[in-house]
Amino acid sequence: xxxxxxxxxxxxxxxxxxxxxxxxINVHLIEASPKFGGRAYSFVDEKSGNEIDNxxxxxxxxxxxxxxxxxxxxxxxxxxxxxxxxxxFVTRDKIKHQLKPTELPYPxxxxxxxxxxxxxxxADKIKIIFLIVQLPFTQSEKYLNISVEDWxxxxxxxxxxxxxxxxxxxxxxxxxxxxxxxAKMFIDILKVIFLNGSDASxxxxxxxxxxxxxxxPAVNFLKVRxxxxxxxxxxxxxxxxQNKAVVVETDKGSINDFDTVILAIPSYAFSRxxxxxxxxxxxxxxxxxxxxxxxxxxxxxxxxxxxxYAFIDSRLHWVFNHGEYITTVTSSADELIEKSQEExxxxxxxxxxxxxxxxxxxxxxxxxxxxxxxxxIPNKENLLKRPSANTKLENVFLAGDWTNTGLPAxxxxxxxxxxxxxxxxxxxxxxx
Length: 432
Ligand SMILES: Cc1cc2nc3c(=O)[nH]c(=O)nc-3n(C[C@H](O)[C@H](O)[C@H](O)COP(=O)(O)OP(=O)(O)OC[C@H]3O[C@@H](n4cnc5c(N)ncnc54)[C@H](O)[C@@H]3O)c2cc1C
Prior knowledge:
Bound molecules: flavin-adenine dinucleotide
Strand content: 15-25%
Shape: globular
Number of domains: 3
């Protein structure tokens, strides 16, 4: 039986492992940290007993590879699928504006839903609708050099259109400021979200922690098929003979019983094992990143009615309502991330009071999670660096949300990259 060594147990590594195991290719998965899941995991908060995420993850109906993955590992029922897009926006003066397509067939329902979205003037709604209608004819490649902000301005989108609509979508999907991300990436995802029927833009929210929804069941899928999994084992070096990886040195020993290797590690970890540029050029792994700030807050009394809210023109972008506790998300949070716990609590609790009327005295406890290198920034420089699954070594393949998936750094990107690497492994093995 052919064997693939997979390095990195995030969603890219796990999805490649599951995909290969399903094809009866033996997998040996090693992960440097003491847990699987990488940047998407959950853990039990000891004081409350609640299982909380390292950061709230929001999925979309257009996460096609992710949906296949959760069906395969048997966790589809652990996700709440919106029937169609529904977002409750809130403004500084506590006014709520709902964006929800009408029952009419797609795309009429979406366009009418936009017309009903009362955070915008009629003129602004028409500008947004016009931009969406133009999407099938918009060639994203032309806009690689332009920022999302400049593109939206060029498309006659007013400041209010940008603040009350586009910014929420762009900052959430790209985890970058509008002035930093390339319009190419934004146009590409807008096409996927808005041109694939009403399901594509509907939100999907895990009902349980990320480890229960993705990680543990994937690990179990691999274990029952007798694959080898190792935690706290770090790849240090790869020895090459005749353009092939033959030995992988880890901090636990040497591994040489494999035919192929998938490196599913983040770009910044990659450069450490690639000093002589023998796997890919090192400058392709040097991608700038952006942070995400998460606060979990336990309330004495929770009066929030909706499962989540999007904040218009705030440093806080989303609030998710988990009943016993709420979770706030600030994407592209580099300006906040170095602040102290007290400062951050003060900033976030002020926003919660201003937008949702949550009195700071109603907050019994909070927990802050800073993910400093949450995702790469999809600017022109980074987009041009993203490597494909193939490397200079014929039996070594890459996976990870930073590789060239055509998507931003997301769960869908990570899973798609894992599946792509698995297909390359199968192709290589069948050529032997
Ligand atoms: C706070 C936060 C919120 C997010 N929100 C969303 C969201 O709402 N929607 C969405 O779609 N995406 C979201 N994302 C992005 C998503 O989590 C990532 O894109 C995805 O998890 C990346 O998976 P990966 O496998 O590519 O990388 P990683 O998860 O980083 O996995 C790589 C693994 O490799 C291991 N590793 C590194 N070096 C070595 C080595 N030398 N040897 C062995 N192992 C090694 C690491 O320990 C890690 O476990 C969010 C990310 C964060 C951090």
